[in-house]
Design goal:
Elements: H1 7-33, H2 39-47, H3 66-78, H4 85-100, H5 103-115, E1 120-123, E2 139-143, E3 146-157, E4 164-171, E5 181-187, E6 193-197, E7 208-218, H6 231-267, H7 280-308, H8 312-341, H9 356-361, H10 369-379
Parallel strand pairs: 1-4, 2-4
Antiparallel strand pairs: 2-3, 3-7, 4-5, 6-7
Bound molecules: flavin-adenine dinucleotide.
């Protein structure tokens, strides 16, 4: 068992931490409040190679794995910049295309994903299907060599700043109940694809959208992979990276909040000479949250190590557990930090309550805590599936 990062991973962690701190949470909040994106940070991270750490070197990436990408996600979040699009573009889209795309798709998309000049977001969730992706109603039909896509997607992050959206559709007849998923790389300006922004109670520079696909015509090579058979493995290949990196983002956010609160409670004095942190009623909840975050980090490390070793099934279990643990730990850490800061906790200046919406959403998306518990009950505890 090895808990140490390699020297290269250590260097990456230090370098990403330094980059994140140069921007900081103030920058993240300022962009969110102005309705702008964190483009400067994104492009600088791309130029420095951090967005492509997990992309093969022959396509302009760093040739590392999800361990490296998780480090990037965690350290930027720990600096107060939790970038959700790291989870969709380099983690999901780049993995799906690198593993299952055609040579042509790899050449067209991976270099841009690696240097940050291209963003590909991910659309699976639908209003009717929700957590039950077997009910997906977005249909792909053949029309000569082309494909026609119709359906609706919801809560899709980052469509306004991406060139493409990776759409999960079903092929064949929706009424048979048999899902044969297929993934399509759809330009966000394709005729027939429209979007409307959702008003979300999350302070974030990244937005969520409803997407409407109305006979969106796509050439044959928009389908990920050489044939329809690539659909299911391609879809599943994106799930472990998604869970592991979103967990890393949660752990980083938890660290950020605990750091902010600890700095404050160590110096704030309202009862004479002792800091408020000397009172166990203040310190213990923070210490408890720190333990939960550290436990989540251990599981993230395990899941990423298993994934990078090609042990996908075990990584699936650890990745889900890591996502669950980190989602809960991040929400606990931010809430506890707000409490420890008192009134200051609710101000924008101290930069903690600004994350309440984001960490709350982290218990729902990209997979809810209940669906993870269902997964663990079924695949670890051998319980009968209830749905
Ligand atoms: C900020 C944010 C960003 C997102 N970004 C994206 C994105 O980029 N792309 C994308 O495709 N989707 C995205 N989503 C959607 C997200 O993945 C879904 O919201 C999530 O999977 C839950 O689906 P739902 O909202 O339809 O909830 P529902 O499926 O309607 O579930 C509602 C509640 O019931 C619970 N529940 C449902 N079924 C069961 C069951 N069988 N057992 C126990 N409990 C159950 C759920 O856990 C949940 O608490 C995003 C969501 C948010 C909030």
């Amino acid at each position: 068992m090895n808990f140490d990062l390699t020297p290269e991973q250590d260097q990456l962690r230090d370098a990403v931490r330094a980059l994140g701190r140069r921007y900081g949470h103030g920058y993240f909040v300022e962009k969110a409040k102005a309705g702008e994106h964190t483009s400067e940070l994104w492009h600088e991270a791309g130029r420095l190679g951090y967005l492509g750490v997990n992309i093969p070197t022959e396509h302009g990436g760093g040739g590392g794995g999800i361990t490296e990408l998780a480090i990037v996600c965690e350290e930027l979040a720990a600096a107060g910049c939790p970038l959700l699009l790291l989870v969709v573009s380099p983690a999901i889209a780049a993995t799906v295309i690198a593993r299952h795309g055609t040579d042509e798709q790899r050449k067209r998309h991976l270099p841009g994903l690696a240097d940050g000049s291209q963003k590909i977001v991910f659309a699976i969730t639908e209003p009717e299907a929700g957590s039950n992706f077997h009910r997906l109603g977005t249909v792909a039909r053949r029309d000569g060599d082309d494909w026609l896509l119709s359906g609706r997607k919801c809560y899709i992050s980052g469509v306004d700043e991406a060139q493409y959206v990776l759409v999960v559709a079903r092929t064949g007849d929706a009424s048979t109940g048999k899902l044969k998923p297929a993934l399509f790389i759809v330009p966000t300006d394709a005729p027939g694809l429209t979007r409307s922004k959702l008003d979300m109670e999350i302070l974030s520079p990244e937005n969520q959208f409803l997407l409407y696909l109305d006979d969106v015509r796509l050439p044959a090579d928009a389908l990920v992979g050489e044939s329809l058979d690539a659909g299911l493995p391609a879809l599943f290949s994106g799930l472990n990276p998604e869970r592991i990196t979103v967990a890393a983002m949660g752990a980083g956010t938890g660290r950020y909040a605990i750091d902010r609160a600890s700095e404050y409670t160590a110096t704030r004095k309202v009862w004479g000479g002792r800091s408020i942190g000397s009172h166990q009623g203040v310190a213990h909840p923070l210490a408890h949250a720190a333990v939960q975050v550290e436990l989540a980090r251990l599981m993230i490390h395990k899941a990423a190590t298993l994934y990078d070793a090609g042990r996908d099934l075990e990584a699936g279990i650890s990745g889900n557990m890591a996502k669950y643990a980190a989602g809960e730990a991040a929400a606990l850490a931010v809430d506890t930090a707000v409490q420890a800061l008192g009134g200051a906790g609710m101000t924008t200046e101290y930069g903690v309550a600004t994350l309440l919406g984001a960490v709350r959403a982290g218990r729902i998306a990209p997979v809810s805590r209940e669906m993870i518990l269902n997964f663990v009950a079924q695949h670890v505890l051998g319980q009968e599936k209830s749905y």
